[in-house]
Amino acid sequence: MNDTELDALLAAAGAETDADLGAGARFLAGHRARQAQLRQRRRGWWSAALASAAAVAGFAALRPAPDAPASAAYGVYESALGDGW
């Protein structure tokens, strides 16, 4: 194979054909479908996470705060120094 034949072969390989355009269209259609499915899956995950966070925040806000427990150190100070130290 000489240089002229090789140049002609490379030029023919670089030219787009109808089959190339069809393959490109099929690839892009599949890629777009996968991207849409991924976006939908992400959207579902984010909405579930936000709903869970809202539920936890709502329960925390509606639940009354418990009284502060008496600590062991407070009991020791009270017994050593008396009431109202």
Can you offer a commentary on this structure?
This protein has helices spanning about 5-15, 20-60, 70-80. The mean pLDDT is about 80. It is built from 3 helices and no strands. The chain is mostly helical and about 80 residues long. It has a domain at about 15-60. Helix content is about 80%, strand content about 0%.
Helices and strands, with pairings:
Layout: H1 3-14, H2 18-62, H3 72-81
Global geometry: rod-shaped
Number of separate strands: 0
H/E element string? HHH
Q: What's the alpha carbon Rg, rounded to whole Å?
A: 36 Å
Broad structural category: mainly alpha
Oligomer: single chain
Q: Work out the helix count.
A: 3
Terminal CA distance: 104 Å
Low-confidence stretches: none
Describe the structure using short key phrases.
single chain; 85 residues; mainly alpha; 3 helices; rod-shaped; membrane; transmembrane
Brief summary of the model shown:
The chain has helices at 3-14, 18-62, 72-81. 79% of the residues lie in helices and 0% in strands.
